[in-house]
Amino acid sequence: MNDKEKNRGPAEFFFISQLVGDKIVQEPKTVLGRLRDLEIKHDGPYPEVVNLIVNRTFGRPPLAVPFSCVKAMDNRKIVINVPEGLALKEFKSEPERILIKDMILDKRIIDTDEYEVEVVYDIHLLHAEGRLIVVHVDVGKLGMLRRLRMRWLARLLGGAFKEPRLLPWQYVQSLPSDIGRFKGDVKLNISWDRIADIHPADLADILEELSGEERISVFNALDTETAADALEETEPRVQRQLVASVRRERIIELLNTMTPAQIADILEILPRHEAEAFKGSLPHECSAKVNELLNKHEINLMSLATNNYVALPETATVDDALTKFRDKSKRYDIFMYVYVVAPDRTLKGVIDIRELIKAGPEATLGSLMTEQVISLSPEDTTSDAAREFAKYDFRSLPLVDRKGKLIGAVRHKDILAVEE
Question: How far apart are the C-alpha atoms of 235 and 171, rounded to whole Å?
């Protein structure tokens, strides 16, 4: 078994705060020291760790251990295997290399409008196929508590900080060459307002950067909902490889979390016999809608509609709406809008999620909603829907019947998929 094969295993995610201080164990049982930092090279969309910086006892200078020597790692120790003939060298900084802990943590994040928007509390890393790459910046309070070894405080506060706030590294500009421990900022290549609009499937970009075997390893490590989003967002070449390489049962599981339009988009790039086999595994109603979409003849908007959105009465509060987003479902097809309905499902108004977040928790939806709602009807064609989306630049539009009752919602991306 060669070194590359030894490093193969399930993809793992780490935060650097969990790794700093880990024992560095040289096989068989020699403790070389403890991890002080990780050195990265930033020559692609996702920086790769090239060296472990290891503190040693008795005041000896730290060592630079090539990451290629890492055999196994967890949150307690990192096991290395130094090939015979390789002499570990004392660490010396190089102009093109950056230390994550010393040079990036606690830096201000500046957006393209030169606003200071967040602070880097932690760095999220992906370990797969013998490589460790930077994938996210953690800008959330949970990241701060993790750094301070105070996650118990989050639990004491009733889970107020349940999830990390992860900013994809692809939205970070190349780090300045003069960045240091006490100078330099982390700058974004987009404005902070657009960060709120990033689709949660940004892992698709990572999958496209990885090699074939690495891609399969990472994809298999994702939970069902995240994997479904990533599969939908990746380019057709990668979609075909994933569908061909992942267990059929797993792909069927992913398809069953998607809308008919999303499923049709995936099946359309597959060989006909494979597409037919997957359609046969879908529920009858879903399969019929997928067939209609694939045939692209007089597509009914109901075939594209989803019921996976938030609809609440006027008396509901902002806190009610945010709680439903957060707790009732892990995944909504429509996540930028809240629809306000009467008890009989008559559509009364709509609220953009960004307006919801800005409002006080006790404000009612009736006081915040926009009453002049642009909507579609089941009789409208996809061309009609495309014109409405082009005119108003919405991400989704509600679908109402002749009595004004909300019966679904249609996403812009699903209309684009069938109109192209």
Answer: 19
Give the count of alpha carbons within 13 A of 374, CB side only.
16
Q: Would you say 14 and 125 are in contact if contact means Cβ atoms under 8 Å apart?
A: yes
Answer yes or no: do 146 and 228 share one domain.
Answer: no
Contact 334, 396 (CB under 8 A): yes
Residues 246 and 112 in one domain: no
User: Same structural domain for residues 277 and 326?
Assistant: no
Provide CB contacts within 8 A for 315, sequence distance 6+. Answer: 364, 365, 366
Who's near 345: CB < 8 A, 6+ residues apart? 311, 405, 406, 407
Residue 376 and residue 301 in contact, taking contact as beta carbons nearer than 8 Å: yes
Are 23 and 76 in contact, with CB atoms under 8 Å apart? yes
Tokens of 60: 């000896």
pLDDT computed for residue 3 by the predictor: 45
Pairing, β 77-80 against β 23-26:
parallel
Q: Is the pTM of this model over 0.85?
A: no
Contact 209, 179 (CB under 8 A): no
Q: Supply the range of the domain harboring residue 210.
A: 203-297
Cα–Cα distances (Å) from 69 to 32, 83, 115, 143, in that order, read 13, 8, 41, 29
Q: Are 280 and 267 in contact (CB under 8 A)?
A: no
Low-confidence ranges of the chain (pLDDT < 50): 1-8, 152-154, 156-161, 190-192, 194-200
Smallest CA-to-CA distance from 66 within 138, 5, 7 is with 7
Contact, 145 vs 32, CB < 8 A?
no
Helix axes 224-233, 248-255, angle to 10 degrees: 80
How many CB atoms within 10 Å of residue 295? 10
Q: Which amino acid is at 371?
A: E
- What is the rounded CA–CA span in Å between residue 400 and residue 398? 6
Mark whether 215 and 189 lie in a shared domain: no
pLDDT, tens only, 27-76: 888 899 999 999 998 766 678 999 999 999 888 999 999 999 999 998 88
pLDDT of residue 383: 78
Same domain, 14 and 144: yes
Structurally, how many domains does the chain consist of?
3
